[in-house]
Amino acid sequence: MTCLPKSPIVALVASAALACTAALSPTAAAAQDWSGQVTLYGWGAGVTGDVTPFTGGPKLSFEKSLSEVLEDLDAAFFATALARRGDLVLFGDLTYSSSSRSGTVPPGLPASGEVTMRSLTLAAGKRFDAGNGTTVDLLGGLRAWKVDGAVSLQPVLSVSPSKSFVDPIVGVRVNTQLSDRWSVLSYADLGGFGVGSDLTWQAAVTGNYRARDNMYLSVGWRHLAVDYSDGGTVFDGAMSGPLVGLTFQF
């Protein structure tokens, strides 16, 4: 398993920022003619799945119906960024979700739990023109995770497992222009392969309306999942739900 330092998200963000600063310096930008976009999303997604803090420990399950997901949800958002020069594409995705749940576990003991998931995806690839207003980006990169949990089983125990790891991923991003103002964007990736997690994958689709020359409004759905186990700590969960976003192009 590949592990990160104490602050994996901060370290990768800093590395990405330094790389982008170098690439987008005045001299480089003038010579390479970069373009890009940044999208901020509100996401109606909670953590669903099962959390086991250690071998033989209690398993806390988060419900999967949309109404219960939204009831469990404390906060969820994500942001994406894309930079392009010719057919070279650089892609980034920062995600945060926090959910909590309380109830009972056999034989009727009161239990509560919290799960906070953070992920940072950095990828690069090549753009292909598929014709009829459609472009396809083939991508490869890394997704860094930080998963914090808290499980309380009164009056027996209270534990707060925390794990950080990095997954390789491969992905595809498809953008189809339907008209001057409407487009559909689809994204999917797959990774893990036992390097960090056993499996991670995500899929998202949005309908996008061009409100201004450099601004889009988006609505859609996104699902992000991870299956991870290490040293008795097991997290098999996902974030899924509707989203609303605002994109700025430059």
CATH architecture: Beta Barrel
What is the helix fraction of residues, given as a range?
A: 10-25%
Strand percentage lies at over 45%
Taken from the alpha-carbon principal axes, the silhouette is elongated
Q: What is the fold-level CATH name, i.e. the topology?
A: Porin
Level-1 CATH class name:
Mainly Beta
Counting DSSP H or I runs of 4 or more residues, the number of helices is 3
Distance, first to last CA: 39 Å
Largest sheet: 10 strands, antiparallel, barrel
Q: Which blocks of ≥5 consecutive residues have pLDDT under 50?
A: 1-31
Overall average residue pLDDT: 80
Radius of gyration: 20 Å
One letter per element, helices H and strands E, the order comes to HHEEEHEEEEEEEEEE
Using DSSP, what is the number of strands?
Answer: 13
Structural class: mainly beta
The largest beta-sheet arranges its strands as 1-4-5-6-7-9-10-11-12-13
Overall number of structural domains = 1
